[in-house]
């Protein structure tokens, strides 16, 4: 009997085990939890992008942001929740959370995967910072809305939304592999809700326009898909699996 290569568990987009299909199967019939998470988040970004594009073209973004933020201030509870959730995406908190995920990944998959996660997290953050300097878009200025100290700097893309996209994507990758099915559902559902909460709390707080959030999510999602692709290549290289073979 011929020895079959070990399935390392990273081919979650189908039972055929061909990770090379990943770039062409974003909306495919994903059979594993992480693939479903990536499909749902990508579809959510697309739908949000359509709405954001309409608001941008009709020059309604600023008016809508101020309207939504004013409504949240009147609601009180919604504004407090938005402030609490957005705090998780602040640089210190997001760095600590990302470091924790990288440490766990190191214990589960080894140093090279943890190093890859750290490099991708750093690269995504620097890409967002560079885009802010190049585009230099001013933040919304809404009358009657309290501006928090962390609302300084430029607006596009949202750093909170970008870091949340990458972080929650890594949690989905890790959680889909190390937890039993029931816990997978809980972890991935929590990641999705956290991702939405951190991202769109920035609009509720009038810190960003919707297009800032969507742009950041697109950048972050590209980094997540790149991470998936590189991890699969890494596994094939280290396990000496020929390209085009079935795991």
TrEMBL record:
Extract the SMART domains matched here.
acidPPc
Q: Which organism is it from?
A: Rathayibacter toxicus
Extract the Gene3D superfamilies matched here: Phosphatidic acid phosphatase type 2/haloperoxidase
Keywords per UniProt: Membrane, Transmembrane, Transmembrane helix
The regions listed as transmembrane in this protein's record are 37-57, 155-174, 186-207, 213-233
| Protein name as it appears in the record | PAP2 family protein
Give the top-rank taxon of the lineage listed in the UniProt record for this protein: Bacteria
Residue stretches making up the Phosphatidic acid phosphatase type 2/haloperoxidase domain: 115-228
Q: Name one Pfam family in it.
A: PAP2
């Amino acid at each position: 009997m011929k020895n079959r290569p070990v399935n390392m568990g990273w081919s979650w987009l189908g039972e055929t085990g061909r990770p090379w299909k990943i770039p062409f199967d974003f909306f495919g019939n994903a059979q594993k939890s992480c693939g479903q998470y990536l499909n749902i988040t990508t579809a959510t970004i697309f739908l949000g992008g359509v709405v954001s594009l309409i608001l941008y073209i009709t020059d309604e973004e600023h008016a809508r942001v101020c309207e939504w933020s004013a409504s949240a201030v009147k609601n009180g509870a919604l504004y407090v929740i938005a402030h609490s959730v957005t705090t998780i995406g602040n640089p210190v908190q997001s760095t600590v959370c990302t470091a924790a995920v990288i440490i766990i990944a190191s214990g589960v998959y080894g140093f090279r995967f943890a190093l890859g996660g750290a490099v991708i997290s750093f690269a995504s953050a620097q890409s967002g910072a560079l885009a802010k300097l190049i585009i230099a878009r001013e933040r919304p200025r809404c009358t009657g809305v309290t501006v928090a100290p962390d609302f300084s700097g430029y607006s596009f893309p949202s750093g909170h939304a970008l870091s949340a996209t990458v972080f929650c994507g890594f949690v989905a990758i890790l959680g889909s592999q190390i937890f039993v099915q029931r816990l997978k559902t809980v972890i991935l559902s929590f990641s999705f809700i956290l991702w939405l909460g951190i991202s769109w709390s920035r609009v509720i707080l009038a810190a960003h326009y919707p297009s800032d959030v969507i742009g950041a999510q697109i950048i972050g999602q590209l980094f997540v898909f790149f991470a998936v692709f590189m991890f699969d290549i890494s596994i094939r290289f280290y396990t000496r699996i020929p390209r085009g073979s079935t795991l």
